[in-house]
Automatic annotation (TrEMBL), chain A:
Sequence ranges assigned to domain Nuclear-export cofactor Arc1-like N-terminal in this UniProt record: 67-136
Native source organism of the sequence: Lates japonicus
GO MF assignments: translation elongation factor activity
GO terms for biological process, alphabetical: positive regulation of DNA damage response, signal transduction by p53 class mediator
Polar residues bias spans: 181-198
Keyword Ribonucleoprotein: no
Record's keyword annotation contains Ligase: no
Protein name: Eukaryotic translation elongation factor 1 epsilon-1
TrEMBL record, chain B:
Keyword Iron: no
Protein name, UniProt field: Methionine--tRNA ligase, cytoplasmic
PROSITE patterns: AA_TRNA_LIGASE_I (PS00178), GST_CTER (PS50405), GST_NTER (PS50404), WHEP_TRS_2 (PS51185)
Cellular component GO terms, alphabetical: aminoacyl-tRNA synthetase multienzyme complex; cytosol
Species per Swiss-Prot/TrEMBL record: Lates japonicus
Similarity comment: Belongs to the class-I aminoacyl-tRNA synthetase family.
Length: 198, 920
């Protein structure tokens, strides 16, 4: 699964030459044979490497603070999301939902690698959720939608210089939202960088 | 920026170590494991860092990375990789290992769980062939992995196979002072067991090896807080004790000097580190040695031990010579002057020495030279030629602290001649790069001269055998054991004991007649010579290890000289000396989050305390309440006022005063008859339990912890009065009046018990209470005997004296004024460096972590802060004068630039904090 994620990431980053990966251990930890040095081991390590290779350092955060926040969620992804139980999922979604209440992305206003890998981790977990459950975690599900668009859509990638602010207008103070489900998020460049206000 | 941590949590060890290593300035707050700090997480997550933007970091690894990056060290790919491995591979194994070792007592099986990850680490280290995980320098990966492994690897009882590379890497990282002190803070020197309270709150790990996870029910730590259940048996026992007779034994006689060891008694010799004579002691010095030793001595005398408490001023050395030159006096005159200053300060603080002497005496010369000759005869002194720095301008050799230069190990620019404050390594002065004479700032030259060395390596075996015994049978504080262990681990080296100076004990050897003893050879001998000046029979104390127990009190920077160097002198002298059995070392006391500084006028010094108008007892109480026991603490004016008003006035004083006033007002000053009911019996049991805790802790010299139990008793008492309302019942019928009498009688007896327990802490208040209650002298020797017994000492009919309030409120404006007067707020670049208690010459102050790691530079920050302040004034002045806009704009730009530099020098992120969202 980690390997699929890495190749999706490569595509999103527009890397021309796909890398060859192997895995090690019972947990199938991805390994990248690196021409310039020792092999790189681990999903987060390799993902960060790819981002740098693609010369997109802003995806790792553009300030000391946001770089730390990005690293934190990347770690969260590989420690809390991997191998979690049904109950864990509920807690994780609940926490994320609160966290994202006043943020467009995990690192506030900026779309980063953390959003991409969290999306890859969460998406398979929530496709199983019933619609009502999705409603509970509106802040998460709507953003997962936005990540999906960013990560798979060629069109979005071409516009990546003007990143999409997907959902900031979809949630009002009362938690009501326009649209529903994964595909209904609209983009609204004007609201870029703002948090949903009351 | 604020960091939240909890004790015993290994992840908090990571971040505190990273904070120390990077030197980033940040508030640290200790909270409970269960405290919710991160608002959006369902489960408590610690450590947590509140960022300037208002976001929280709740992953320890991300916090560490952040701290390193703030400090200018960005993580490499290899770093990322190690951190990811730590989080995904090592942590699950560690959690399981800790669970087994700490909660299930299956330490022997730990190696099975950890072998895989440790082998991987070992192979990587030996393959990489670099001292640290990612290269030649310490990176965030080293700190994180070291801290994660610390609980298991520092525990020698766990055998972890043959991972040589891991071991040497681990020791290398552990050698950094910041790491050691973080470990001490988080695990309290309890090693693996220090994590217990944390582990008990972790979900049981999903075991990868054995699935027989047993539920762990016994949880003694849990019930420590909150109501303690009292059993019927405890109540019975408490009532029995209550009705016991007062100790009919001989009254505690006044001390008969000279006090000498007695057959069949517990003979205790207490020393406090000798304060150095050239300075006025500050509060940190006072709590670190003399006050702590005084409390223990007073307590010991109450317990009926045969106890001698000696101290004195340490007077030899270059610092005295210098001070004499400064003040235009002879060294002897300086010593006389400051000895008197010290004496009067300790008198004001009611330090009850049996003898307060000094080191510049005949006896000192006699005993020091005798020990020297014995060491010489037994072949424990070696001769060597030493290259020394000499300042031709000042015409003298620059010993130790009189030369400064760049550290040869870490390039810290202000390393001293004997030690680097930054990396903590000991330095030979000639190794310093770019040395400078501290007095005239010229470059000294290297000269060689012959010196004598104490051959510590030759004594190492003997020392270790003795240490093994002393530390296992005596009460050594955790920091004392740890510092000693680290000295032994690094291997002992011969130590020079002679110096090219004039003001000292002369070396008697004809080949060295121009020289004197090095203060650290000389000063501890002061304990012996001071005792010898007290009594001719001093050898009954000092050459009598069978009968005498020796307690040394000091701040932690003095530990190695009392646990390694001095014992080696005495062991090598082979004269049946009494060696230290209990080494009690405090951490450092800071002043309002900065350090005491004589030159900057920051802090309260011994001679000023009495000018504050606050009674000596209140000073003692507060210093003991914040005694740096187990971790650094800080003196704070606001906190002092708070503790005075809440604990002394509203809790303790209020209770004792109410109890006495009820007797006076409702019962004409005579203690009423008491008919104990269930509720009273329960209170007796609870109070008796607190008393036992107090005694257990005091016996172990846990002075601060014991004080909490005194305050608990008066809290119980207040509650008891509040619930029973004797002032209402006294107006009721016979039964109710009877009840009011019982409650009053029990309360006033608790007050009497409190006066005894308070005696070591607040001697004057203790006396005042007993005077007010007219309590018999015998109550003192009765209640603190054995494991403690709460006896009814004021029986029905006993007439008490005149009752009056014990404490006064400290008003906010009064405290504000004091705070201003003593400069607590003038700090611009707050330095986390600690007050170095200057007791005894303090050659080693390893804890002074002046952070100048990459960009973080308190010195520069201070200058910049000054510049910012000046520029700010300029801008305000221009605006006030309504100057031209362009001019103002230019000056504002300058100001902003300065502020940015300041932020960088303080280790803060230079980016302006992003706008906080409104919805929070």
């Amino acid at each position: 699964m980690a390997l699929r994620e890495l190749s999706s990431l490569e595509k999103y980053l527009g890397l021309k030459k796909p890398n060859k990966y192997s895995t090690q251990g019972d947990k199938k930890v991805p390994v990248l044979q690196n021409n310039n040095g020792p092999p790189l081991v681990g999903l987060v390590t390799i993902a960060c490497h790819l981002v740098k290779e693609a010369k997109r350092p802003e995806l790792l955060g553009d300030s000391t603070e946001s770089r730390a926040v990005v690293q934190q969620w990347l770690e969260y992804r590989v420690t809390n999301l991997n191998g979690c139980t049904k109950d864990d999922i509920k807690t994780i979604l609940k926490d994320l939902n609160i966290y994202l209440q006043d943020k467009a992305y995990l690192a506030k206003n900026q779309f980063t690698l953390a959003d991409i890998l969290m999306y890859y981790g969460i998406q398979p977990l929530i496709v199983d959720l019933a619609i009502q459950e999705k409603e509970q975690y509106v802040n998460v599900t709507s953003r997962v939608g936005s990540s999906e668009q960013l990560s798979v859509s060629r069109r979005v990638r071409d516009q990546s210089e003007a990143p999409i602010s997907p959902t900031t207008t979809t949630v009002d103070a009362a938690g009501q939202r326009e649209g529903s489900g994964l595909t209904s998020c609209h983009t609204d460049p004007a609201s870029q960088g703002q948090n949903p206000g009351p | 920026m604020k960091l939240f941590v909890s004790e015993g949590n290994p992840h908090c060890l990571k971040v505190l170590a990273a904070l120390g290593v990077t030197g980033v300035q940040c508030d640290v707050q200790y909270v409970n494991h269960e405290e919710t700090v991160v608002p959006f997480l369902s489960r408590p997550a610690l450590p947590a860092l509140l960022l300037p933007s208002g976001l929280h970091l709740f992953s320890s690894n991300a916090i560490c990375q952040y701290l390193f990056e703030v400090n200018g060290q960005e993580s490499s790919e290899l770093c990322y990789q190690w951190l990811e491995w730590e989080a995904t591979d090592l942590q699950p194994a560690l959690l399981e290992a800790l669970h087994m070792a700490v909660l299930q007592g299956k330490g022997s099986e730990v190696s099975k769980v950890l072998q895989g990850p440790l082998n991987y680490l070992d192979q990587s280290l030996s393959k990489g062939n670099t001292p640290y995980l990612t290269g030649e320098a310490v990176s965030v990966a080293d700190v994180v992995l070291w801290a994660a492994l610390y609980p298991v690897l520092s525990e020698s009882s766990l055998t972890l196979g043959e991972c040589k590379s891991v071991k040497s890497w681990f020791d290398r990282v552990a050698a950094m002072h910041s790491c050691q002190s973080a470990a001490q803070k988080v695990l309290q020197g309890k090693g693996l067991q220090g994590t217990k309270s944390y582990m008990q709150r972790q979900p049981a790990p999903r075991s990868s090896h054995c699935r027989d996870t047993q539920p762990c029910n016994s949880n003694p730590a849990e019930c420590e807080e909150g109501e303690r259940a009292v059993s019927e048996e405890e109540m019975e026992a408490a009532v029995l004790t209550w009705s016991k007779d007062l100790n009919a034994g001989p009254l505690a006689a006044d001390r008969q000097h000279p006090i000498l060891p007695q057959e069949g008694k517990r003979n205790i010799l207490v020393t406090s580190a000798l304060p150095y004579v050239n300075n006025v002691p500050h509060l940190g010095n006072i709590i670190g040695c003399v006050l702590s030793a005084d409390v223990f001595s007073r307590y010991g005398r109450l317990r009926g031990w045969n106890l001698l408490f000696v101290c004195g001023t340490d007077e030899y050395g270059t610092a005295t010579e210098n001070k004499a030159r400064e003040e235009g006096l002879t060294p002897q005159q300086i010593c006389d002057k400051y000895h008197a200053v010290h004496s009067s300060i300790y008198k004001w603080f009611q330090i009850d020495f049996d003898f307060f002497g000094r080191t510049t005496t005949e006896k000192q010369t006699e005993i020091a030279q005798n020990i020297f000759w014995r060491l010489h005869e037994h072949g424990f002194l070696v001769e060597d030629t030493v290259e020394q720095l000499r300042c031709e301008n000042c015409q003298r050799f620059l010993a130790d602290r009189f030369v400064e230069g760049t550290c040869p190990h870490c390039s810290y620019p202000e390393a001293r001649g004997d030690q680097c404050d930054k990396c903590g390594r000991l330095i030979n002065a000639v190794e310093l790069r770019e040395p400078q004479c501290k007095v005239c700032r010229r470059t000294p030259v290297i000269r060689s001269s012959k010196h004598l060395f104490l051959d510590l390596p030759k004594l190492e075996n003997q020392l270790e055998q003795w240490l093994e015994k002393s530390t296992s049978t005596g009460d050594w504080t955790a920091n004392a054991k740890q510092i000693t262990r680290s000295w032994l681990r690094d291997g002992l080296k011969p130590r020079c004991i002679t110096r090219d100076l004039q003001w000292g004990t002369p070396v008697p050897h004809p080949d060295f007649k121009e020289k004197v003893f090095y203060v650290w050879f000389d000063a501890p001998i002061g304990y012996l010579s001071i005792t010898a000046n007290y009594t001719d029979k001093w050898e009954k104390w000092w050459k009598n290890p069978q009968q005498v127990e020796l307690y040394n009190f000091m701040a932690k920077d003095n530990v190695p000289f009392h646990s390694v160097v001095f014992p080696c002198s005495l062991l090598g002298a082979q004269d049946n000396y009494t060696l230290v059995g209990h080494l009690v070392a405090t951490e450092y006391l800071n002043y309002e989050d900065t350090k005491f500084s004589k030159s900057r006028g920051v802090g309260v010094f011994g001679d000023m305390a009495k000018d504050t108008g606050i009674p000596s007892d209140v000073w003692r109480f507060y210093l003991l309440y914040v005694r740096p026991e187990g971790q650094d603490s800080a003196f704070s004016w606001a906190d002092m006022a708070l503790k005075n008003n809440s604990e002394l006035l509203n809790n303790l004083g209020n209770f004792i005063n109410r109890a006495g006033m009820f007797v006076t007002k409702f019962f004409e000053g005579c203690v009423p008859a008491m008919e104990l009911q269930q509720e009273d019996k329960k209170l007796l049991a609870v109070v008796g339990w607190e008393l036992q805790q107090y005694i257990q802790l005091m016996d172990k010299v846990k002075i601060r912890d014991a004080l909490k139990h005194i305050l608990n008793i008066s809290r119980h008492g207040n509650q008891y009065i509040q619930v029973n309302e004797p002032w209402k019942k006294i107006k009721g019928g016979d039964a109710e009046r009877q009840r009011a009498g019982t409650v009053t009688g029990v309360s006033v007896n608790i007050a009497c018990l409190l006066s005894v327990m308070l005696f070591p802490y607040m001697p004057t208040v203790s006396h005042t209470i007993r005077d007010q209650l007219n309590a018999p002298q015998s109550c003192i020797n009765t209640m603190l005997q054995g494991s403690g017994s709460f006896v009814c000492t004021l029986r029905a009919g006993h007439r008490i004296g005149t009752v009056s309030p014990l404490f006064q409120k400290l008003e906010a404006d009064q405290i504000e004024a004091l705070k201003k007067r003593f400069g607590g707020q003038q700090t611009t670049a707050q330095s986390a460096a600690s007050a170095q208690p200057a007791a005894v010459p303090a050659p080693a102050a390893p804890a002074a972590e002046v952070a100048t790691v990459n960009g973080v530079d308190p010195e520069k920050a201070k200058q910049l802060a000054q510049a910012v302040a000046e520029q700010g004034d300029k801008v305000r002045a221009l605006k006030a004068q309504k100057a031209e806009k362009a001019v103002i704009t230019a000056e504002v730009a300058k100001l902003l630039n300065l502020k940015k530099q300041l932020a960088a020098a303080e280790g803060k992120s230079p980016e302006p904090a992003p706008q906080k969202s409104k919805k929070k």
